[in-house]
Design brief:
Elements: H1 2-19, H2 21-56, H3 62-81
Helix pairs in contact: 1-2, 2-3
């Protein structure tokens, strides 16, 4: 894993110099941010619902579960933002 970070760090300055700051950040947000958001708000909650269903044999209220999941994500983002996590 560390070797992959080394390779990524090696190629980052070239990409940054070639694209410039705005295009580089936009490209990173699209390539890394969109899949992260997709997982956090769609795939993750569905997976958790399936696990809860398979372990308890009951299906929770989907809307309440999703709202609780999103509130928890927002809470973690705020902790990271303020440097508490």
């Amino acid at each position: 894993m560390g070797f992959l970070f080394l390779i990524a760090g090696y190629f980052t300055p070239g990409s940054y110099n070639k694209k410039g700051i705005k295009r580089f950040i936009k490209d990173r947000l699209i390539r890394l941010g969109l899949p992260t958001l997709l997982f956090m708000y769609i795939v993750g909650p569905i997976t958790e619902l399936l696990v809860i269903n398979s372990t308890r044999n009951t299906f929770p209220n989907i809307l309440k579960f999703y709202i609780d999941h999103v509130v928890l994500i927002i809470y973690y983002v705020e902790l990271v933002h303020y440097g508490l996590l």
